[in-house]
Design brief:
Blueprint lengths: L4 E2 L7 H9 L3 E4 L5 E6 L4 E4 L4 E3 L8 E6 L3 E3 L3 H22 L4 H15 L2 H6 L2 H8 L3 H10 L12
Antiparallel strand pairs: 1-7, 2-5, 2-7, 3-4, 3-6
Length: about 160
């Protein structure tokens, strides 16, 4: 039985989410939507997709959150829900880890862009900053820009920066 309680929609702007995460509140990205959060940390970034936990002791060092898609966060109501959400967060981290294992920086950038475009839509991916993708797979932002140019799907629309 799914007992996760959604947060009210009015508190889902990036600043409010960041405050909750930094305060150690444990939340779960709603698994019934195509959404997620890019969590910018001091030296890297992580993606927490549907079903993944955010906050708690793991994300107190988070410096910025970038909502992806129509973000909805829920509050886990049981130990089992929290445990499942931590396992899902680990799966999202492992997926990104597979890209960082690729030797070529340009290929790493292309892989993370392709993954996001396959899961979300091209327009959503175009709105996400190069710096966020770069921090997720350990490349320079200009490498992500180059990968965007080489990808016929992603185009050359200007993006915001972190």
């Amino acid at each position: 039985m799914d007992t996760l309680q959604p947060l009210s929609e009015h508190c889902l702007d990036a600043a409010a989410i960041l405050a909750l995460v930094q305060q150690g509140h444990l939340l779960v990205v709603n698994s019934h939507r195509r959404n997620g959060l890019i969590l910018i940390k001091p030296y890297h970034a992580e993606f927490a997709g549907p079903g993944a936990t955010v906050g708690g002791i793991c994300d107190r060092d988070c410096q910025q959150v970038i909502p992806v898609g129509d973000v909805s966060l829920v509050v886990p109501q049981s130990c089992e829900e929290r445990q499942k959400a931590f396992l899902i967060r680990r799966q999202w981290i492992r997926l990104t880890q597979q890209f960082t294992d690729i030797e070529s920086p340009l290929q790493r950038a292309q892989m993370i862009l392709n993954q996001f475009e396959n899961y979300f839509d091209a327009e959503t991916v175009l709105q996400l900053p190069d710096e966020a993708f770069a921090l997720m797979v350990g490349v320079l932002p200009q490498t992500v820009r180059k990968a965007r140019r080489f990808s016929g799907k992603l185009g050359l629309v200007p993006r915001c920066t972190v």
